Amino acid sequence: MEQYMKNGTRSSTYHLIATTSWLGMGEVATKDVFDWIATEPLILVASGTIARLLNDLATHEVYTGDTASSIECYMNVYGATKEEAQMEMRKIIENCWKDINQEYLRPTVVIPREKLMAMIKLSRVAEFIYKDEDAYSFSKNKLKDIVSMVLIDPIIP
C-alpha cells in the first residue's frame, strides 16, 4: 500500500502541477521556495495523497481491473471488503486535511503563505472535481456546466 501511494501520488502529476502553479506568482517564487518543495514537505505529500485517493474513490467502479488503485491495494493487503477499503481511504483523506491545516498554521520564514495556500486550493479543486464522480474524465457532466457558468455566462452584479 505504501509503495502504491508513493508511485500513485507521483504518477498523478500533482507534485508537478503544484510546483508549476507557482511560476506565475512573481517575486515569491524564489530559489529557496523551489529548494523547499524539492524536499517533499508534508503539505505537498498530504495534498498529493488527497488528490490520488479522491481520484481512486471516484474512478474505482468505472475502471475496475484496468489499473491498480488504492482500493484494490488495500483490499489485497488487508483482506478488506471494498466498503472497508473506501472507508479507510476517506479516513486517510481526513488525516491529510489535518496535516495540511497544521502545516499551513505552522510559522515559516522560507515559504510565503501564498505558496502554501496555492497547494490548499489545489486540494480543494480535487475535492470538487472528484466529490461525486470523476468530473475531470467525464467533463460533459456537471463540470462542463459549472465552467460555462463561471467563464461564459458569469453573473455580473
UniProtKB/TrEMBL annotation:
Terpene synthase metal-binding domain boundaries: 1-99
Molecular function GO labels: magnesium ion binding; terpene synthase activity
UniProt cross-references to Gene3D superfamilies, sorted A to Z: Farnesyl Diphosphate Synthase
Presence of keyword Oxidoreductase: no
Domain of life, source organism: Eukaryota
UniProt keyword terms in alphabetical order: Metal-binding
Gene Ontology BP terms: terpenoid biosynthetic process
Pfam families per the UniProt record, alphabetical: Terpene_synth_C
Name assigned to this protein: Terpene synthase metal-binding domain-containing protein
